[in-house]
Automatic annotation (TrEMBL):
This is EamA domain-containing protein. The keyword 4Fe-4S does not apply. Keywords: Membrane, Transmembrane, Transmembrane helix. InterPro entries: EmrE-like (IPR037185). SUPFAM superfamilies: Multidrug resistance efflux transporter EmrE. It comes from the Bacteria. The chain crosses the membrane at residues 15-33, 40-64, 70-88, 100-120, 132-151, 163-184, 196-217.
Length: 242
C-alpha cells in the first residue's frame, strides 16, 4: 500500500491552486444544478451537463494535440445525438427544452471542470497522487460549502443542516468521489485520452440511467430513448476501439 505521508513528502504537489478551483466549481455547479432544475426542469440540466463533454473533448484535441482515428471521430459525433435523444421526451409539460442564461453557465462550467481534471491529470498527477488529489478536491468543496452554510446562517438565520441532509450528502458524496477518482485513473491508462474518456463516461451514464429507470423505477422506454441507447452503445464501441 502507498503511504499518504510518503506521497506528501516525495511528490511535487503543485496542483493546490487547481484543488481550490475545482472544489469551488464542485459546490457552485452543484448549487446551480439545483437552481436550474427548479427553474427549467431535469431535462435541461441533463442536456447542459452531458453536452458539456464537447469542451473537454475539444480541449484534449487542441491543447494536447490528441489524434483521432476515423472510427473514434464517428463515435464522438454519435455521442451528441445520443445525448440529446436521451432527454427529448423529458423536458416538461410543454414538451420543449427551454434554454436560458443559467443552463448556458452550467454547460460552460461543467465543461471547464472536466477540462481542468484532464489538464491536472496530464500535467500534475501520478498514480500515487490520484486518490489524494480527489480527496483534496472534495475537501475543498466541503470548505466552500460549509462557509456558504455558515454565511447564510449569519446573514439570513437559515438552519445549518439537519440529519436528513447530512446523510443525503454522504450518500451523494461517496459515489461522486469514486466517479472523479476512477475518471482520473482512466485518463492515466495507455491509449485512453480525454477525447475518448469523457464521451465514454457520459455514454455510460446514459445507458446506466436507462437500465435503472426500467429495472427499478419501471419507466417506459420511448422510441427516442431506444434510439439513444443504440447510438450510445455504438459510440462507446467506436470510441473504445473495440
Amino acid at each position: 500500500m502507498v503511504d499518504s505521508g510518503s506521497v506528501l513528502k516525495n511528490s511535487r504537489l503543485d496542483f493546490w491552486p487547481y484543488v481550490i478551483l475545482i472544489g469551488f466549481l464542485f459546490i457552485t455547479l452543484f448549487g446551480l444544478m439545483a437552481k436550474v432544475t427548479q427553474e427549467y426542469g431535469v431535462a435541461v440540466v441533463s442536456v447542459a451537463v452531458k453536452m458539456s463533454l464537447a469542451i473537454p473533448v475539444v480541449f484534449s484535441l487542441v491543447y494536447f494535440q490528441e489524434r483521432l482515428s476515423i472510427l473514434n471521430g464517428v463515435g464522438i459525433l454519435l455521442a451528441f445525438p445520443a445525448l440529446l435523444l436521451s432527454v427529448v421526451n423529458t423536458s416538461g409539460s410543454n414538451g420543449r427544452v427551454q434554454i436560458g442564461f443559467m443552463p448556458i453557465v452550467l454547460f460552460i462550467g461543467s465543461g471547464i471542470l472536466d477540462a481542468l481534471l484532464k489538464y491536472v491529470q496530464q500535467v500534475h498527477l501520478t498514480e500515487e497522487t490520484s486518490a489524494l488529489f480527489s480527496a483534496l478536491c472534495f475537501g475543498s468543496a466541503f470548505v466552500f460549502g460549509a462557509a456558504t452554510l455558515i454565511g447564510r446562517r449569519i446573514l439570513k438565520g437559515d438552519t445549518l443542516m439537519d440529519m436528513r441532509s447530512f446523510i443525503g450528502g454522504i450518500a451523494l458524496g461517496i459515489p461522486n468521489y469514486g466517479s472523479i477518482y476512477f475518471l482520473v485513473r482512466a485518463l492515466q491508462l495507455p491509449g485512453m485520452d480525454g477525447s475518448r474518456a469523457f464521451p465514454i463516461n457520459n455514454m455510460g451514464i446514459v445507458i446506466l440511467s436507462a437500465l435503472v429507470s426500467v429495472l427499478i423505477f419501471k419507466e417506459k422506454i420511448t422510441t427516442a430513448k431506444r434510439l439513444s441507447i443504440f447510438l450510445a452503445v455504438t459510440a462507446i464501441v467506436l470510441m473504445s476501439g473495440v
